[in-house]
Amino acid sequence: MEIILRKSIATDLEIFYQNQADDEANYMAAFTSKNPKDKDAYITKWTRLLKDNSVHMQTILLNDQAVGCVVKFVMEGDSDITYAIDKQYWGKGITSIAVKQFLELEETRPIFGRVANDNIGSQKILEKSGFKKIGTNTDFANARGMEIMEYIYRLDQ
Fold first, then answer.
1. Which of 36, 110, 43, 35 is nearest to 72 (CA)?
2. How big, in percent rounded to 5, are the helix, strand and coil portions of the chain?
3. What is the pTM of this model?
4. Residue spans of the chain under pLDDT 50
5. CA–CA distance, 113 with 156 (Å, rounded to integer)
6. Count of alpha carbons within 13 angstroms of residue 54, beta-carbon side
7. Measuring CA to CA, which residue among 93, 84, 81, 80 is closest to residue 125?
8. How many helical (H) and strand (E) elements, i.e. helices and strands, does the chain have?
9. Strand 111-116 relative to strand 132-141: parallel, antiparallel, unpaired?
10. What domains does the chain contain, in order, with CATH numbers?
11. Of 50, 135, 126, 24, residue with least CA distance to 83
């Protein structure tokens, strides 16, 4: 099993869209767009982000097949990391490896991660990559239609 990253390209967006449009994946991500099934809005947004110099987007390749992404973006002045992978690969350590590889490429520090309090898998990914839990926040989660608690993680080195 070979896991490598490469710069994301426009043709990857279809895969990224399918990953986030999955109902279970959307629920676990929690803090999502209001309508995750609006493919046109998704493709338009992410096509713009591919050209944004403040966004660092890498595609996760598993045996040369695009299966997900790892992204650094800036929100309210802070650099944040997010990631998503096809649900069939959850729990296999692929995202953990990809995030570690990404953090070797992306040197911005500190970098933050935000995770729904019940998304244990995502919490483990951040913790395996050296992120430390630094706090909590309660915010509205579109995917759940209510406010939920999220954990805030930070990586300094």
1. 110
2. 35, 35, 30
3. 0.95
4. none
5. 12
6. 9
7. 93
8. 5, 7
9. unpaired
10. 3-155 (3.40.630.30)
11. 126
